[in-house]
Amino acid sequence: MPVTLTVESMSPEQRELWGRVCQLWEQSRDRDRTVIGAAIHPQYVGWDMSAEFPHDKEAAIASVTDDTPALQNYELFAHSVQIYDHMVGVVHYSYRATVQPGGAPPVAVTGKWTEVYLRQNNDWKMIAVSGRPNPSPQEHPPNADAAT
Hints:
Layout: H1 12-30, H2 33-39, E1 40-48, E2 55-56, H3 57-62, E3 70-84, E4 88-100, E5 107-120, E6 123-133
Parallel strand pairs: 1-6
Antiparallel strand pairs: 1-2, 3-4, 4-5, 5-6
């Protein structure tokens, strides 16, 4: 059975880091390039495992702003929040969200992410991510691998 952490079960430091993750999702909903850019380390590198190669900070910012579908609502589920020497944080979580592509109906999406943060001047800066949205039912229908 998957483990979902509660905020009450986290240490104050873990709650602070988890709060940063939640804050970045809110900032993504607001689509403010400046605010999002300030939260990401200049040497950031991430990998949406659906993509062929990792991406840089500018691509990360563009992935939640510009012409990408707008984030309408979301739920986050923390599975692991670890902090090392009060400097590095690693968060594993899953999500459920609704996004609104321009001129199209809203779309429900789910997925999993691992995010890595570095504490600088009492602020958690995102330095790396890895994960991906789950395949939609159309991409991977049930029993697609079953023999007929």
